[in-house]
Specification:
Helices cover 61% and strands 8% of the residues. By secondary structure, it is mainly alpha-helical.
């Protein structure tokens, strides 16, 4: 989800994505190349992300969300819905646990 949101801001290099994740998390999340590039490969194979010349994203390649058929945006919307549901559910559980 983080990667898709970052790429909605605009096309980005892998290193810039890693840096943006760190910035957005206040330094709490430190992704590595080994975490990001397999994710970008999966997103590209599924048609949610593209990179120059259709090549799988590499450290110096720019990746971006696909605009047609809007798969990246559709996946992000679904992940947002799932995250909202999980957050609401966990919040209710934590309230119950605190009162027990």
């Amino acid at each position: 989800m983080f990667t898709l949101v970052i790429l909605l801001e605009g096309p980005s290099y892998g290193y810039a994505i890693l840096k943006r994740v760190r910035e957005l998390s206040g330094g709490d999340l430190e992704w590595t190349d080994g975490m990001l590039y397999p994710l970008l490969h999966r997103l590209e194979r599924s048609g949610r992300v593209s990179s120059p010349n259709g090549a799988t994203p590499k450290p110096r390649d720019v990746a971006s969300t696909t605009e047609s058929p809007r798969r990246g945006r559709a996946q992000l919307a679904e992940q947002r819905r799932q995250w909202t549901t999980a957050n609401r559910t966990l919040g209710g559980l934590w309230v119950q646990a605190a009162g027990a």
